[in-house]
Amino acid sequence: MITCSEFMAEFGDYLESEVPTKVRQQLEDHVAHCRTCQVICDSTRKTVKIVTDTRSFDLPESAVKPIVDRIMAKIRIGQGS
Amino acid sequence: MSYLQEVDLGGTFPPFVSFEEHFGMVPNLFRAQTLLPRVLEGEAELMGAVLFKDSILSRIQKESILLAVGVEYQSNYCVALHYQVLRSLGVPVSQLDQIVINNRKAALSTSDAALLDFAIKLAMRAPWLSREDIELLRDRGFNDESILEAILVTSLASFLSTLSTGLSPLPDFEPRVIPTSNHTSPPKAAYVGGTGGPYLRAVERSPESFPPFAIFLERFGFIPNLSRAQTLRPDVLEAEMELFGDVLGPKDVLSHLQKECILLVAAATNLNTYCVADHCEMLHIMGLSREEADQIALDHHEADLPKETKALLDFALKLAGRRFRIGSEDIDELIGHGFTEEHILETVAVTALNNFLNTLQMGLGTTPDVKPRHVYTLKDALPALAEEYPAEGTQIDPDASLVAKVQAGDLEAFEELVIRHSRRVHRTLVGIVGNVQEAQDAFQETFLKAFRYIGSFEGRSTFSRWLLSIATNTALQSLRERKPLESFDEEDHGEEFHPRLVRAWGDNPEQLYSEAERRELVERAVMRLPSKYRVVLVLRDIDQVSTGEAAAALNLEITTVKSRLLRARLMLREALAPHFATSAKRMGL
């Protein structure tokens, strides 16, 4: 059975589904028996999902046109048209 | 009347009860399959999970995909069915007629129009689909769950149209006139092969707690990447497993070897590198040499197979590729080789299942489970035209025509590019700079630089990636000027981060807050991360670019990006834990 430190060393790749099958099995065995790593693993995945889904820092639809108009005005001035 | 006879399964046959409930009748397509009730049971599971179940996409959006793809496939049966379903859901006839004649001119919202464009590309030009097409949907506000649904519904359209071509049921409703001009010709763009993903986020599921994965492990010794890529919808994976079991499991009609050969030749005609590699491997496990399996994929006529099996594979190949009409003479030929109607029905079902899987795989872009012995290329796709196309490996750029217009002096085309990319560039800049006002200055600067240098843009990367690197550099420059003490470039010292809060989170923590509250919590927590961690997290989890692309944009080693990303995610988890851990809301946190 691998240790918690060994689990954390592979955890980044595990989250990205980038570990070989054998290592994945070892990590899953560890999680099945270690409550702390199980919670960290589960809550980190949920963190990523929340961050991905909230579309943070999105530009509101209503703000797109004025900001685009400003850029295009600058470009047109620069072009002399 | 279909090519095959029907038997009466009674009014209480569960799949028919389900179809009655959701279509208001049992479509002839399913009545045509009553010789094998188990196949209908599997199909009803899949229809239930992908089409009938309430999910993010509405039934109208899903049926519109089925209609638009049915039009592209020139499937009179599917078009008549989905047209009528949409009518019964209240969609105006004028809009439906427009989707049939030319979906691009239909009065749809920009997001629904993008959804149909995506589905049609996946259905008709799957090998040319790339991550960029997924990004276009994300930019129209679709999250990964809804994009996965769009891919699943398009795959279902492929499944249903293959069944209807193979079985030829009478249309349930008055057929519509389908214009042939909608038929899409092959694009003049490089072939990428559909294994450049996975494009969508997935969650890890353990075989110990998720039965479909346990079954894969037990039977094949591995869990296919195609299944791992769908874990956002475990219910669909369970339904797929039922369908696999009902169609591929039994050997009372076709043998396992015959079914696997059908899957292999059909995947090969669809140029699906991933599925061909898997089916070759399965045939090898069944006892064929790798060379024999390769030969079946390449040309089954030259393989050491009985002549009846070759005739069966001819039929499957014709059906899978959609290039030819299936007629009663094809059915008669199979009967002449000694096959029964049950054999023919099962062949059609296996081929339809193959087309479902091939479409799904190309939509998700999963990397092969085993090293492919043959990677399908442009030359396989269009041998006669191969030389006219760009070199293999060149990425497809959905912005290419707009970029060319800008390079020829068209300012309106540039305005369209700015609109198209404004939300993504804004996200990147605010996330990296950490301040809305400064980000707006950087926003303007990014697009002015892009305009200034677009003449020298040669298309070595996509426009979107090129713009991302301009935005990232502009933002980093702004960050460096403002905060010389907090260095983004500072090296990592290998210090470990130890999580402190280890209280479990509930099953759906996001439901504890409204969308606006969630966004505020996330934005506040992200802004508080040290910049070197924040930048990586913004690119990877908010912009959803790959690790390699983030490394290239930031001029960092991939290993550095990976370690900073993990650290950023753990720090963010720590910051969000008081709000999302079990009972957080109850405690008034």
What would you say about this model in short?
Chain A is mainly alpha-helical.
Descriptive account of the structure:
The complex is a heterodimer of chains A (81) and B (589). Chain A has 4 helices and no strands. Chain A is mainly α and 81 residues long. In chain A, helix 1 (4-15) crosses helix 2. The N and C termini of chain A lie far apart (71 Å). Chain B is mostly helical and 589 residues long. Chain B contains 27 helices and no strands. The longest helix of chain B has 24 residues, at 144-167. Chain B starts with 13 loop residues before the first helix and ends in a 9-residue tail after the last helix. In chain B, 48% of the residues are buried.
Distance between the termini of chain A: 71 Å
Which range does the strand content of chain A fall in?
Answer: under 5%
Overall mean pLDDT of chain A: 87
Helix content of chain A: over 70%
CATH H level of the domain at 14-167 in chain B: which superfamily?
AhpD-like
Can you give the mean pLDDT of chain B? Answer: 87
Label the structural class of chain B: mainly alpha
Main pleated sheet of chain B = none
Number of strands of chain A: 0
CATH topology of the domain at 14-167 in chain B: AhpD-like
Helical residues, percent of chain B: 55-70%
Query: Which regions of chain B are unreliable across 5 or more consecutive residues at pLDDT < 50?
Result: 181-191, 383-394, 584-589
Please describe the topology of this protein:
The complex is a heterodimer of chains A (81) and B (589).
Chain A: H1 4-15, H2 21-33, H3 35-54, H4 61-79
Helix pairs in contact in A: 1-2, 2-3
Chain B: H1 14-23, H2 28-31, H3 37-52, H4 59-72, H5 76-88, H6 93-102, H7 110-125, H8 131-139, H9 144-167, H10 211-220, H11 225-228, H12 234-248, H13 256-269, H14 273-285, H15 290-299, H16 307-321, H17 328-336, H18 341-364, H19 378-381, H20 400-407, H21 411-433, H22 436-453, H23 463-482, H24 515-527, H25 531-542, H26 547-554, H27 558-580
Helix pairs in contact in B: 1-3, 3-9, 3-12, 4-5, 4-7, 4-9, 7-8, 7-9, 9-18, 13-14, 13-15, 13-16, 13-18, 14-15, 16-18, 20-21, 21-22, 21-23, 21-25, 22-23, 23-26, 24-27, 25-27, 26-27
